[in-house]
Amino acid sequence: MAKGLVVTLCFVLLVSVTAATQFKVGGSGEWKVPESGAKSYNQWAEANRFKMGDNIAFTYPANQDSVLLVDSNTYNSCNASSPIDRFTDGNTIFTFARSGSFYFISGNQDNCKKGEKLHIVVLANRNNSTGLAPSPSLSPPAEAPPAESPPAEAPSASSPPTPPSGEGEITPSSIPPPPNAASFPMISLMGILGLTFVPFLNILV
């Protein structure tokens, strides 16, 4: 895993170095007051595309001139007293390590006022702006609440309760028939006759 990461980083660095472009200031590389009728340094810069990692070369006599990196105010005023950086080696190569505006002027104020000055706008690399964003942590899904069981149905008021099977059941066959109402006068009459004739029979005997 670590070996693969190192190889990937080396490849990215190699591609970055290979893709970088070196520009010569003004096209020729000479840092001097532009000749009459020649393009200004800014016209040359507007015709080119500068990106992060590119560099620009300035060639000039070291004992007569210099290259100053300044801000926009100093660029407009050609005030060489307090530059951001100063280069005096005669063969300056400046690398653009960020995007945005860069302002260069000659260390000789008269030369600056005669047009020995340069404004370059460096574009941001698209590869640097498309880095992978950290994936958001996924929170576990919330557990669904248990489904509520449906309430038990109440017995219907219109239906009679069902008696338990085998207990208390009354069938028509188990009810004894009522006594015959006509048999009661007959029994009473025979009783009376019996009581009447029994003494008479005893006398005859």
TrEMBL record:
Belongs to the early nodulin-like (ENODL) family. Residues 137-164 have a biased composition (Pro residues). This is Phytocyanin domain-containing protein. Residues 21-124 form the Phytocyanin domain. The keyword Disulfide bond applies. PANTHER family: BLUE COPPER PROTEIN (PTHR33021), OS01G0788700 PROTEIN (PTHR33021:SF376). It is a lipid-anchor; GPI-anchor. InterPro entries: Cupredoxin, ENL_dom, Phytocyanin-like, Phytocyanin_dom. Residues 1-20 form the signal peptide. The chain crosses the membrane at residues 182-204. It is found in: Endomembrane system; Membrane. One of its GO terms (molecular function) is electron transfer activity. The keyword Signal applies. Coiled coil: none annotated. It comes from Rhynchospora breviuscula. Keywords: Disulfide bond, Glycoprotein, GPI-anchor, Lipoprotein, Membrane, Signal, Transmembrane, Transmembrane helix. Residues 131-178 are annotated as: Disordered. One of its GO terms (cellular component) is side of membrane.
